[in-house]
């Protein structure tokens, strides 16, 4: 059975005495997160987000509070209003993020990372999406496996909540966890979670490098944009549009590049924006209808 000291060298907690907020659902991953944060010497506040969607939600909150008391950390419950229905996973995730606040630590593990890579692949994501969860202080146990968090909780005698929604096949992540990953393990005859984590790390490094190179290109300078390699030109345009409040997509970036190459004099973008070619520059401005 692992001791916290056995796992901490693979974690990325902030230095001792740093105040941190940890999400504590009551499950094994978040319980291990709090236990390891305490072992790392952080000043921990644990927050349980109560969605109120299940009959056992109050029991989960009680387990989380008992864990916080045993570990000697500050604790509070944040209630959020959610209803079952379409996009429940995404809505619950957004509600948790909002309730926990910026900079909160979450108990994502290497198994979560593998699932996130596969979800991104099914959405047709590029390198940015396939880079998945970024390692660092906000995801300090990302290198650990789910089996290790469960073993740590057993070793420390910490009760954990069992959320039945984690087995609900309505949710794509659960089908990936319970159906796709075991199948991939069988086909590959090895643990593909390790491979998927390695792939995410490689793509994230590539993505960061391409972003750094794209940041040197002035996307409003037509000569610079046309002279850049296509992938960097697309990134430069998307960075420009994102900076000015437009959620960029590949189709919008392609239309802007068509203007830069002289294929058209202007293009319309979602969100009531327009890009025009004026001399040797591209200009972004709201359309008349959007500015009224």
Primary descriptors:
292 residues, mainly alpha, 3-stranded parallel sheet, 3-stranded antiparallel sheet, 12% strand
Task: Describe it.
The structure is a single chain. The protein is mostly helical and 292 residues long. It has 13 helices and six strands. A three-stranded parallel β-sheet has the order 1-2-3. A three-stranded antiparallel β-sheet has the order 4-5-6. The mean pLDDT is 91.
The helix/strand class is mainly alpha
Q: Write the H/E string, N to C.
A: HEHEHEHHHHHHHHHEEEH
The global form is: elongated
Largest sheet: 3 strands, parallel
> What is the number of strand segments?
6
Could you estimate the helical fraction of the residues in percent? 40-55%
Total number of helical segments? 13
End-to-end gap: 65 Å
The overall average pLDDT, rounded, is 91
Task: List low-confidence stretches.
Answer: none
Strand arrangement across the biggest beta sheet: 1-2-3
As a percent range, the share of strand residues is 5-15%
Cα gyration radius (Å): 23 Å
